């Protein structure tokens, strides 16, 4: 044992070797930073990180974007409804707010802020959710939102085949139990829907109308409300592309309120001006050459 200890290098020798290696590493790093452009460095780091995570990491990440093939992603919508119900003691922050101006004392609604981790469990599996938000550089382009779900690679198939359908069914149940309806207005400048609680002081009970007709309308509306989740309307549409984008962002269970363009825009004024111009064309004139007058 004593002979083995004698063969070990001294502490000063170890420190000297460590200092030499550190100096060499710093020199190589400086040379690489000077010779290799920053974009190439980022590319190399990304590839190296992906290689390490591929063979060493046991985690798998699902990414759910807000839009899917030019339409609103229904999976994203379901996750957005489902996750606020899974907030637990491990959640370190929470986004609260309310759009019910008629009842300001009502409890606020929950939303998930960016970079907030939500831990969920399903059939004994621990799942970690995170919302990522990439801010837009232009005010009229909405921020890009994505939900990241991290799980073990070995349960990937189970999560995809059972967990996501469970989220969709739960979200549908939550929406069907909501007592308040939301009315949505399309913000043309921000290219997104903005909501408010749909509540009006007028009531059919106080409306002056034939009782039979009133009851028929009330029954029809009650039947409609029983199977609809939201009322949605949009404002101005500048071109066909805007209209297509708005229509694809609405759900199948929606009401689209389209205002008569002839009664509210410049076209009606232009038509009135055109009518006046035509009337002026029929005014009687005077001439010293009767032969030049059209008999018609």
General description of the model:
The chain is an alpha+beta fold. The protein folds into two domains: 57-177, no CATH class; 182-268, no CATH class. Helix content is 42%, strand content 20%. The protein has nine helices and eleven strands. It has helices at 2-7, 11-35, 38-56, 74-82, 156-176, 211-225, 240-248, 261-264, 266-281; strands at 59-65, 67-68, 71-72, 95-97, 109-111, 117-122, 125-134, 144-152, 182-187, 192-197, 230-234. A four-stranded antiparallel β-sheet has the order 1-8-7-6, covered by helices on one side. The chain has a three-stranded mixed β-sheet with strand order 10-9-11, with no helix packed on it. A two-stranded antiparallel ribbon has the order 2-3. A hairpin with a 4-residue loop joins strand 9 (182-187) and strand 10 (192-197). Helix 4 (74-82) packs across helix 5 (156-176). The model is unreliable at 228-234 and 278-287 (pLDDT under 50). InterPro entries: AAA_N_dom, Mitochondrial_chaperone_BCS1. One of its GO terms (molecular function) is ATP binding. Residues 269-296 are annotated as: Disordered. Residues 36-132 form the AAA-type ATPase N-terminal domain. The chain crosses the membrane at residues 12-32.
